[in-house]
Automatic annotation (TrEMBL):
Upper taxonomic lineage: Bacteria, Pseudomonadati, Bacteroidota, Cytophagia, Cytophagales
PANTHER family listed in its UniProt record: EPOXYQUEUOSINE REDUCTASE
Binding site for tRNA: K223
Primary location recorded for the protein, binned into one broad class: cytoplasm
Gene designation: queG
Residues forming the catalytic site: D134 (proton donor)
Domain 4Fe-4S ferredoxin-type: 176-208
Subcellular location: Cytoplasm
Residues that coordinate or bind [4Fe-4S] cluster 1: C188, C191, C194, C248
Catalytic activity: epoxyqueuosine(34) in tRNA + AH2 = queuosine(34) in tRNA + A + H2O
Binding site for [4Fe-4S] cluster 2: C198, C214, C241, C244
Entry EC no(s): 1.17.99.6
Annotated family: Belongs to the QueG family.
This protein's name: Epoxyqueuosine reductase
Length: 310
């Protein structure tokens, strides 16, 4: 039986590579006992701010068997998004988080995961399962860590020894027994570059991020006015923020992605500060029609730019 389980595991990992995923790891679908008190404390301290969805489905976040009946395995995949060419990030440029350069990752990852699921049905048979891409109560970084794909750094992002931390994470939760991978060690050591570099002090202690203090939260999640107390601290980030990742020594291993959908819209490469300040609804829709930037809507983007100008 173990030979069959191992063979199925190898088939799935090989197909994940064929589909363009950079890494694929597997963990047993168990209750996340160690995470329960951490998540509860984080929520009780209101580290999620106005992200009320983070407090929903507490039990499901900790137990994948509540999301898929009879779940036995969590397959986690990583997809690199580090760009070959960065958009302008000078002192006088408005900055866009690298994850938002191209097509919204939800579309890209979901399509690839559906293809992987279809392959599993073809090669293995009727398997009950669901694909997840940051849109359901799944603790993706925890599952990636359990699957041996990296460790969770002091900035709370997953770090992979081979490519750093600029990647998206997705999962298939299946009622299929597969061979699990073991977790790896934490290689952050004594480094505190991410903690020291955060201009809003969102990393309140190593491995603990107050989401409600993060520039990404202010520019994407917060729907009301950005508080005056963080004025002049954004370093011109208008959508998201990459500071803690940019300073991480492990990202010297980041290499350009191989996913054309993640390339920026050609118009963005020529965008000037004035273009951002004068952007119209028509231009916004044309450039960001299938982009993660749509989350903040034009009104939110204009609010962020105005905040940076004040």
């Amino acid at each position: 039986m173990q030979v069959l389980i191992d063979k199925r595991t190898q088939l799935i990992k090989a197909k994940a590579a064929d589909l363009g995923f950079d890494f694929c790891g597997i963990a047993k679908a168990d209750f996340l006992e160690d995470e329960a008190p951490r998540l509860e404390a984080w929520l009780n301290q209101n580290r999620h701010g106005q992200m009320s969805y983070m407090a929903n489905h507490f039990d499901k976040r900790l137990d994948p068997r509540l999301l898929v009946d009879g779940a036995q395995s969590v397959i986690t995949v990583l997809l690199n998004y580090y760009p070959e060419e960065r958009l302008p990030e000078g002192e006088d440029d408005y900055k866009l988080s690298k994850y938002a350069y191209g097509t919204d990752y939800h579309f890209v990852l979901k399509d690839k995961l559906k293809a992987l699921m279809a392959y599993i049905h073809e090669e293995i048979g009727e398997v009950n399962g669901r694909a997840f891409v940051d849109s359901a109560p799944v603790m993706d970084k925890v599952w990636a860590k359990r699957a041996g794909l990296g460790w969770i750094g002091k900035h709370s992002n997953l770090i992979n020894r081979d490519i750093g931390s600029f990647f998206f994470i997705g999962e298939l939760i299946l009622d299929l027994e597969l061979t699990s991978d073991g977790p790896i060690a934490d290689y952050c050591g004594t480094c505190t570059r991410c903690v020291d570099a955060c201009p809003t002090d969102a990393i309140v202690e190593p491995y603990v991020v107050d989401g409600s203090k993060c520039i990404s939260y202010f520019t994407i999640e917060l729907k009301e006015a950005i508080p005056d107390e963080v004025k002049s601290k954004f370093q011109n980030w208008m959508f998201g923020c990459d500071i803690c990742q940019d300073v991480c020594p492990w990202n010297r291993f980041a290499r350009p992605h191989q996913t054309p959908e993640f390339n920026p819209h050609p118009a963005l490469e020529q965008f000037t500060k004035a273009d951002w300040e004068e952007i119209t609804e028509e231009i916004f829709q044309a450039i960001f029609r299938r982009s993660a930037v749509k989350r903040t809507k034009l009104a939110g983007l204009k609010r962020n730019i105005q905040f940076l100008r004040e």
